Amino acid sequence: PGPHHYTSSIDAALTLVPEGEPIALMSVKDIFHAGVGDRDGEAKWYAAASTPALALCAASLRALSEGVGG
User: Fold this and answer.
1) Confidence bin at 38 (pLDDT 50/70/90)
2) Are 34 and 55 contacting, i.e. CB atoms less than 8 angstroms apart?
3) Whole-angstrom Cα distance, residue 41 to residue 23?
4) pLDDT value of position 56
């Protein structure tokens, strides 16, 4: 198989989400927001970007950088 396209494919970006962590995706005026994890109803790790895949990739990498799901 070829390389994963984490920043351009939502399916590939989903593989970066730490196992068992909830996600939230939304868009507001062409900006996509992604949240990973839950802390009292708010995302533990958050990112905003121009595409949903980029936002989810960034939020997931923030979680992974803190050792979640590693």
Assistant:
1) confident
2) yes
3) 11
4) 97
Which pair of tokens denotes residue 30?
């062409």
- Share above pLDDT 90 across residues of the chain, in percent, rounded to a whole number: 79
Report how far apart, in Å, the C-alpha atoms of 29 and of each of 8, 50, 53, 67 are. 19, 10, 16, 32
- The C-alpha torsion from 57 through 25 and 28 to 4, rounded to 10°, is 30
Q: Place 22 in a pLDDT band, splitting at 50, 70 and 90.
A: very high
Phi-psi region of 24 (alpha: psi -120 to 50; beta: other; left: phi over 0): beta
